[in-house]
Amino acid sequence: MRNYEMMFIINPTVMADGRDALVAKVEETLTKAGATELKTEKWGERKLAYPIEKKTSGFYVLTSFTIDGTNLTEVERKLNITEGLMRYIVVKQK
């Protein structure tokens, strides 16, 4: 089990209720894959460095968790098909 951090950006057109539901869905995906020690920080809406899907801002969320690295491919597969997510990145913590 290793520690990971994931930053994801939610489409700014998603309303506040939808954002909370989307964050909960990502957390549920992680826990179903065996993630533990889940900690989520909502950074709020910020300007993007470059346009994504013709949007110039997005709602940033940072999540840290512990998971077996072999389960990450399943998590990433599910995140790729999740509506409302513009981008995400998963990095290993030291």
TrEMBL record:
It holds the Pfam family Ribosomal_S6. The keyword Ribosomal protein applies. The keyword rRNA-binding applies. Binds together with bS18 to 16S ribosomal RNA. GO terms for cellular component: cytoplasm; ribonucleoprotein complex; ribosome. It comes from Propionigenium maris DSM 9537. GO terms for biological process: translation. Keywords: Ribonucleoprotein, Ribosomal protein, RNA-binding, rRNA-binding. InterPro entries: Ribosomal_bS6, Ribosomal_bS6_sf, Ribosomal_S6_plastid/chlpt, Transl_elong_EF1B/ribsomal_bS6. Belongs to the bacterial ribosomal protein bS6 family. PANTHER family: MITOCHONDRIAL 28S RIBOSOMAL PROTEIN S6, SMALL RIBOSOMAL SUBUNIT PROTEIN BS6M. This is Small ribosomal subunit protein bS6.
